[in-house]
Amino acid sequence: MSNTALLTVSGLGKRFGGLQAVADVDLEVRAGEILGVIGPNGAGKSTTFSMISGALPCSTGTLHFDGKPLQGLPTHAMAARGIMRTFQHNKPFASMSVRENVMVGMHTRLTGSLWQVLAGTRGAAKAERDAAQRADELVDFVGLGEWRNADVGTLSFGQGRLLEIARGLASEPRLMLFDEPAAGLTPAECDRLSDIIRQISQRGIAVLLIEHDMRFLMALANRVVVLNFGRKIAQGTPAEVQADEAVVAAYLGDVGALADA
Ligand SMILES: Nc1ncnc2c1ncn2[C@@H]1O[C@H](COP(=O)(O)OP(=O)(O)OP(=O)(O)O)[C@@H](O)[C@H]1O
């Protein structure tokens, strides 16, 4: 893990009418680390995530990736810069196989060769073979090797989530944003997902993880940022934030969540 910030968020804020949903949030995600963001219900996690991923404009604040401003970039431009968001808008192409779906995820890296493929020019066959091989590696990495030729419509909910990760990795991101990835998964699927996210970070990809499931997040994150009523109230290692008085107080209404972690 490095100490250099890849994503820097400063003074981030969002106002919805009279409600200050997020106020003055600073955070940074470093190369190769897993940064978790937690907070009780309504703390502003989803709103923060949406602003970072570009789905929602910020009312205040700045976002920089690798030192360059991020605001106003469309999703495809963010992907081209190396930022990949999972689980909200990336619906799979239902009539395609698992492998084909992952190949589609490569388009930000394959622009030239993909056009060759479509146009049937020289080099096309090799480009397609390489893309299929890379897709197979990613499908194996997320544990869907047996289903590589299956129609994505036949995948379970949990498998669909693994496919999303393989598709996200296909664009060779430097930062992956995960929005509540454990939601709706069985305990066994959560364990598998946890392993995969850990391995992604070990490959040097930075991870920003917003998660309701405290046990899942605390076991995985290198550092944790805690939000409450839209403000950052603590940050540190999982052990540090679990021992932090402001964090304990924020979770008083939800003692089980912190005690379980
Ligand atoms: N589009 C919106 N319009 C108005 N208010 C909103 C909107 N989105 C969120 N809010 C409000 O902003 C606050 C923060 O919501 P947000 O969904 O970001 O919190 P959260 O931490 O993700 O909560 P949860 O854990 O319950 O999902 C809440 O009071 C919520 O009601």
Automatic annotation (TrEMBL):
Domain ABC transporter: 7-254
GO molecular function: ATP binding
Pfam families attached to this UniProt entry: ABC_tran, BCA_ABC_TP_C
Coiled-coil features, chain-numbered ranges: none
Domain of life: Bacteria
Keyword line: ATP-binding, Cell membrane, Membrane, Nucleotide-binding, Transport
Stored CDD domains: ABC_Mj1267_LivG_branched
UniProt KW Membrane keyword: yes
UniProt xrefs under PANTHER family: CONSERVED COMPONENT OF ABC TRANSPORTER FOR NATURAL AMINO ACIDS, CONSERVED COMPONENT OF ABC TRANSPORTER FOR NATURAL AMINO ACIDS-RELATED
Name the record gives this protein: ABC transporter ATP-binding protein
Organism for this UniProt entry: Polaromonas aquatica
